[in-house]
Design goal:
The chain has about 375 residues and is α/β, with parallel strands linked by helices. The protein folds into two domains: about 1-185 and about 360-380, Rossmann fold, CATH 3.40.50; about 185-360, 3-Layer(aba) Sandwich (Rossmann fold). The protein has helices spanning about 15-30, 75-85, 105-115, 130-135, 140-150, 160-170, 185-190, 215-225, 240-250, 265-275, 290-295, 330-340, 345-355, 360-380, and strands spanning about 1-5, 35-40, 50, 55-60, 95-100, 120-125, 155-160, 175-180, 200-205, 235, 260, 275-280, 285, 300-305, 310, 320-325. An eight-stranded mixed β-sheet has the order 3-4-2-1-5-6-7-8, with helices on both faces. It has a six-stranded parallel β-sheet with strand order 11-10-9-12-14-16, sandwiched between helices. The two termini are about 15 Å apart.
């Protein structure tokens, strides 16, 4: 089968859940299928290259995916939409696997696929709907319209979480069938990361942007210092909210209780997680929650917050493999204290989390994706 993956972000040049998903699936399918990745030309040299059994096609030099305030660039999304038409020059594909976001490429690819009789599978990591109002304010209506235009432009839709599947159905407009195929992990690699004596009590890993709500974690730390004066927390990641969060930590007088570690490479970050008692994800919006799953595979439980726009609680069984709490500093502090003060309970939750994570190996995810590709090709 000849399969094309189309997305403006490309792993390992960009580190994110969407591009990592495509790379993991493509790497596994390339052993028996002809796999192409169509994206910006993140590499030097020719626009087309073959590496490790995958064919890469660059549509132009990549502009910045994000604006200075950490939001996705509309200009970049429009430009990629126009340039994604290059797929028409690469011969006919059995399946086009298209990431829904950032939407503007969906219509030209759909039109091309109708002319060339190519089935389209579109993967949705999130469906924002009314969340655009909170994210963009005055520009929300236009963004909602673009998202709704993309909604039916596929022969099959894949949602990475049950939350996203529900929101797609609620978005209306009919359209193709929806299957839930979650993101995954290399379970064997992660579960073999040695567990060691925890260096930090609490760890956060992720981008430092507003909706991740790292400020809630810092406020919870202030409360935790009252009962656990020696508590240690590390914050791993970079982003436009970094300076504000450092100032907040200073204002809260957290001192040596918190350490901002900046960027940590992928291999190192798993050792960082494994050296923690608990991972905390206070984000108000998560299409999936990859870091929670990675921590689970390392045998580390997570604390996540409930949220109308977050699917992170789908991969935590509350009280068994981790804790699910309201988005409130006191709730976060109480949950973290319960894990830190009871190492046995933390280990039991970590073992349960690891057992749950074993269901999410990338090989299984690739097999489920291939079954969809074969089914949609046969029906087209």
């Amino acid at each position: 089968m000849k399969i094309a993956f189309v997305y403006d972000a490309l792993y390992p040049y960009s580190i994110g859940g969407g591009e990592k998903r495509y790379w993991e699936i493509a790497s596994r399918l390339s052993a028996h299928h002809e796999v192409h990745m169509i994206s910006w030309k993140y590499w030097d040299g020719a626009a087309d290259l073959e590496r490790d059994g995958i064919f890469y096609h660059g549509v132009g030099r990549p502009p910045s995916l994000y604006t200075e305030d950490g939001k996705r660039s509309i200009r970049e999304a429009v430009e990629f939409g126009l340039r994604s038409a290059r797929v028409a020059t690469l011969g006919k594909f059995d399946v086009l696997e298209v990431c829904a976001f950032p939407y503007f490429h969906a219509l030209p690819l759909w039109l091309i696929s109708r002319v060339r009789r190519e089935p389209v599978v579109m993967t949705w990591h999130e469906y924002w709907g009314d969340y655009w109002t909170q994210y963009l304010g005055r520009g929300a209506q236009a963004a909602q319209a673009v998202e709704r235009v993309a909604l039916p432009l596929a022969d099959w839709r894949v949602a990475v979480s049950a939350l996203t599947a529900r929101r797609l159905r609620a978005g209306g407009r009919g359209g193709a069938q929806i299957s839930v195929i979650p993101n995954g992990i290399d379970f064997d690699a992660l579960s073999s990361v040695p567990r060691r004596a925890p260096e930090f009590d609490v760890t956060y890993v992720g981008r430092l942007i507003e909706h991740k709500r790292v400020d809630l974690l810092l406020q919870a730390l202030r409360l935790l210092r009252q009962c656990l004066p020696d508590i240690r927390c590390q914050i791993v990641g970079t982003g436009p909210d970094h300076d504000r969060l450092e100032r907040l930590a200073a204002d809260l007088e957290l001192g040596s209780s918190v350490r901002f570690r900046g960027h940590v490479d992928e291999k190192t970050v798993y050792n960082v997680i494994a050296g923690s008692k608990v991972l905390v994800m206070p984000s108000e919006r998560e299409g999936f929650g990859m870091t929670v799953l990675e921590a689970a595979a390392c045998g580390v439980p997570s604390i996540v917050v409930r949220g109308h726009y977050s699917a992170a609680d789908e991969i935590v069984e509350d009280g068994v493999s981790g804790l699910v709490v309201d988005p409130d500093p006191r709730c976060l502090a109480d949950a973290a204290e319960s894990v830190i003060r009871s190492p046995d309970a933390g280990r039991r939750m970590g073992d349960a989390a690891q057992a749950l994570a074993s269901r999410y190996d990338w090989t299984k995810i690739a097999d489920e994706s291939l079954a969809i590709y074969e089914r949609v090709r046969m029906a087209h």
